[in-house]
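Fold this sequence, please.
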Amino acid sequence: MYFNRPAGITFNHFGGAGIMDLLAVLLRRLDAVFVVPGRPTMILRDEDFELLPASFRDDWPVVVARTGAETGQLIRAS
């Protein structure tokens, strides 16, 4: 895990149900979105879509993933 100032965190080589659950908790606590290059941007709530920058909404698919299991499924499926 790397902290990219001012507002980013990068994870490399991660996986497994436990880690994905922890990631979901972290996203919820930070009120953050999950961006995986080449994959859909993942948000926690439908209403978060309007808070994304226009480039995220217009140029990339955006999906709702509320749990670690849903996040893991989306990463594996895309």
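The first helix runs from residue 17 to 30. The first strand starts at residue 2 and ends at 4.
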